[in-house]
Amino acid sequence: MKKITVLLFSIIALSFSQQQDTIEFYVSPNGNDSNIGTLNAPFKTIAYAKETIRKLSEHERQIDITVYLRDGTHTLDKTIVFELEDSGAEGTKITYSAYKDETPIISSGVKIKGWEKLKTYPKSLPEVAKGNVWVADMPEGMERFYTLFKGDKRLARTKKEGFDFKDIEYVAAKSMNVLHDKDRYLLRKLDLEGEEILKSWPNLEDIEVGFAPVPWTMNMLTLESVDEEKREAWTVLEANAPPAAKKSHTKPWVENVIDHLDTPGQWVLNTQERKIYYWPEEGEPSDNIIAPKLKEYFRIEGNIDYKGAIDIPTKNIAFKGITFQHGERDSWWKGHKGWGIQHDWDKFDRGNAMLRFRGAENCEVSECRFTNSGGSAIRLDLHAQNITIKNNMIDFVGHMGILLCGYGPGTKDVNKNNTITNNVIHHVGAVMKMGAAIFVWQSGSNIISNNLIHHVPRKAVGICGIRVPILQKREIDFDEGSKTIRWNEIDKAIAKEGTFWQKYTPFLHAKNNIVENNEVYRALEELADGSALNVSGAGEGNIMRNNFAHHITSHASGVMRTDDWQRGTTFENNIIYMANVSGIVHKGYNHIVNNIMVDCSSRESIRFASYPDEEADYGSKVQHNIFYESLYAIRYYNISYRASEGISKPEDCAVDTNIFYCAKNVEQAKKHIENKRKTGIEKNSITADPLFEDVANANFKLKPESPALKLGFKQIDMSKIGLKTAEFPKKYMKYNLQDVDGRKPNFHRNRAGQEIYDFW
């Protein structure tokens, strides 16, 4: 029967190709894989459509092929892997697309059935919960899950703050991330103080402790043991820094304990009992409570050779108009595999995103939505080239929005030339707070443009490589990121002469990236020590230009920043507006040219600093910038010294032809210039009102008579900044109309004068 079906389909497909220069398949949740795949007789599964395409003749596969997904939920119980045999031919695409005016959903959700009201109460159940909690059995075949949904919304797992860790005595390694090898046990030990909320529960393997050991990252680790008398606990895995390494603004917490099931909407999982406990907000559970089965839905994967120089990528596959939801979050469970990347913001080569490219070229993701998942949305791992991600909505996902993660430092440079443009990304990192909207690690020559990014717990856009101290101290296992370094390649190719930077910069592949025309606000909402737009330990030639970053008012060290021996980065034509943090943090040899900084009210416009052991290299350009304050007196520059020979003072840079103005304190700007001229800089800088057209309404176009223009400042074309709403799917704009976290949306016009809703 199957042979006849395939033959019949091949005849139909050939007919399509002759008539339309395309082949079309159809897949519906109500279809059948015994059908022939037409509109009226669709397949049931995407996997079967994929396998059917493989069986087409060579002639048939020389034209475009489209698999149309019909309305409804397409449920996956295992990852669909698109391999070399699934590639489109050169000059063609195999596209998996929503059918016209329909919204197919890809989910791995399993409905929880058989809910009963809890009658026999566990001893530790809070009194307030009695009579309100329901219980159900875990679905057959599922061992553990960390996320639960009610329809398309993620439910809150029980969480309790209120304890802290004692400070410990240790000598930190220079990477500032982990201890020396002899002290690594301290990365698992929790010395407790404060409220006694950790206990030796019988199901410790289900219970996680969350904490930010340093301000820039977060750990979620399973408990191994708790000694209530000694007031100490141990986790099953090492944290990426001692739990009390630095006091953070976030308090430690514990999750998934029935003792803390005290609020409607919360749930607890007990794998020993194979029970789910849930306090529904509506009085009884809905019939749409869903547990996710998969972290990874689609993986486009070629032949990856870890040790060799050559990968063979899968090519020419596209996804259009599809909604991905109900993904599982990643876990740091005892049997986990995978190294961490820098600062453990994520795991290297890890299948924790709903859509993952791992050895792929010439692929496209457009007009899709990634939402309400415990994990990440999209990953481009290892070999990834000419991947276009455009016109998508990414919201309410647990970890990363989009991650580009190439090979570690070495000669293999194959993650590059990708385009991420015109996407709306907000409320990512909803579970793993170190998640960024867009994070680029060891990936170069990418274009990141015209994205609207807001409400993220850490970075909006981060470009990163390996911190140089790790390359300096190869004999010490500083952190997980050090395991990604391809030392054999470096040893063979490293230059014999030159400074340390000159020797190692060829192996830092996060270079020549362009980040332009993006609008960013409300970044660094929960974690700290970073910036909304950040370049750190990356290669040279990165450019951040024509971006509008505003309302950065929380835990950031700056709106834009270079860090970790960063060199060769240019910030130009950017507008920074309404920030209570530094406008730009400058470390290393980099250039700050033709930027506007307005109302950086509580800090300074530029903060100069240096990274430990950074090599001196003078001459960074700080020129043709406008520093403007409409409310208070302003610190234009501030110096933050570090133990380093690197650049740390304005007078070490080429600083000139800037314009300074403070509406409430005109004399302050004059004194600033006078003082700086004594040090040999700002010789041609001036103090004057730059004459913006309308500061109050964030219109920073300069009037024709502006003294800034006469000084050589180039007008910034604000019409190019932000989301191109004419190209963005109208069906997704409504999702910016929701009430989010109790905040009503504001209506405004973006920089191009287009109407848009958001949450300032």
- The Rg value, from CA coordinates, equals 27 Å
Strand order of the largest sheet: 1-2-5-25-28-31-35-38-41-44-47-50-53-56
Kindly state the number of beta strands. Answer: 62
Spatial separation of the terminal alpha carbons: 59 Å
Mean pLDDT across every amino acid position: 88
Helix content range: under 10%
Main pleated sheet: 14 strands, parallel
Unreliable spans are: 1-11, 13-18, 737-760
Number of H/I helices? 8
Portion in beta strands: 25-35%
CA-based shape: globular
Instruction: State the secondary-structure class.
Output: mainly beta
Ordered list of secondary-structure elements with their pairings:
Elements lengths: L1 H19 L1 E6 L18 H9 L9 E6 L2 E4 L4 E3 L11 E5 L5 E4 L1 E3 L4 E2 L16 E4 L11 E2 L2 E2 L1 E2 L1 E3 L1 E3 L23 E6 L13 E4 L7 E9 L4 E4 L17 E3 L10 E5 L4 E4 L10 E4 L5 E4 L12 E2 L1 E4 L2 E3 L27 E9 L2 E3 L2 E5 L2 E10 L2 E3 L2 E5 L4 E4 L9 E2 L2 E3 L2 E3 L11 E4 L5 E3 L2 E3 L6 E4 L3 H5 L14 H7 L6 H5 L9 E3 L2 E3 L9 E6 L6 E3 L2 E5 L5 E6 L3 E6 L2 E5 L2 E5 L2 E5 L2 E5 L3 E5 L12 E3 L2 E4 L5 E5 L14 E3 L2 E4 L3 H12 L8 E2 L4 E3 L4 E4 L4 H4 L19 H4 L12 E4 L5 E4 L2
Parallel strand pairs: 1-2, 2-5, 3-6, 4-23, 5-25, 6-26, 12-20, 23-27, 24-27, 25-28, 26-29, 27-30, 28-31, 29-32, 30-33, 30-34, 31-35, 32-36, 33-37, 35-38, 36-39, 37-40, 38-41, 39-42, 40-43, 41-44, 42-45, 43-46, 44-47, 45-48, 46-49, 47-50, 48-51, 49-52, 50-53, 51-54, 52-55, 53-56, 54-57, 57-58
Antiparallel strand pairs: 7-22, 8-9, 9-21, 10-11, 10-22, 13-19, 14-15, 15-18, 16-17, 16-19, 17-18, 20-21, 59-60, 61-62
